[in-house]
Amino acid sequence: MSEKKRAIFLDRDGVINKEVGYLSNPNNFKFIEGSIEALNILKQKGFLLIVITNQAGIARGFFTEETLRAIHDKLIKRLKQDGIELDDVYYCPHHPDFTGPCDCRKPNLGMILKAELKHNIDLTNSYMVGDTLNDIQTGKAAICKTVLVLTGYGKEEQKNIGSIIPDMIFKNLKEFAINI
Ligand SMILES: [Mg+2]
């Protein structure tokens, strides 16, 4: 059996790109300063890079899966310019109020467990990085190390830290990448 791999599970909005609230147009996709460099550093350190993103805007009818694919194509192409390859991108298109319950919407573990199986990931030595406590809750349920970044909703979310406590807090993805 091949050796298990360590992964960085990355929330997308507010971690890699700027949080704009239901990003629905590839033209409005803007990288957070330093996030491309951060992904490069994390890749160099030997981690798989796996995006895990809730995209309820699809369930709400704000945009289509085709548009989401165009957004992810833009993300993937831009990273490729710097020689960085994402290992996978998972998204949940659901919302319970519109499409009923699902097992993929964070804090559910559907996306992480799918990735674990496909990529042979060692969850306890992997990290979940997000800008919300919902991401942290997800990471904890998966027994990953958890990282709150203070970009996106992160600063607001930091004020609400109660029973769900991230293992680490960093100013942004780059600071995390440099320091682990
Ligand atoms: Mg987010």
Which terms would index this structure?
180 residues, alpha/beta, Rossmann fold, six-stranded parallel sheet, 7 helices, binds magnesium ion
What's the CATH topology label? Rossmann fold
Number of domain modules:
1
Percent strand equals: 15-25%
For the largest beta-sheet, the strand count, sense and barrel status come to: 6 strands, parallel
Shape call: globular
CATH class: Alpha Beta
- The number of strands is 6
Pattern of helices and strands: EHEHEHHEHEHEH
Plain-language structure description:
With 180 residues, the protein is of the alpha/beta class. It has one domain (7-179): Rossmann fold. The protein contains seven helices and six strands, in the order βαβαβααβαβαβα. It has helices spanning 35-44, 65-81, 96-99, 110-119, 133-141, 154-159, 173-179, and strands at 7-10, 48-54, 88-92, 127-130, 145-149, 168-170. Strands 3-2-1-4-5-6 form a six-stranded parallel beta sheet. Helix 1 (35-44) runs parallel beside helix 7 (173-179). The protein is globular and about 40 Å long. The chain starts with 6 loop residues before the first strand and ends with a helix. The model has no long low-confidence stretch (mean pLDDT 97). Residues 11, 13-15, 19, 130-132, 152 line the site of magnesium ion.
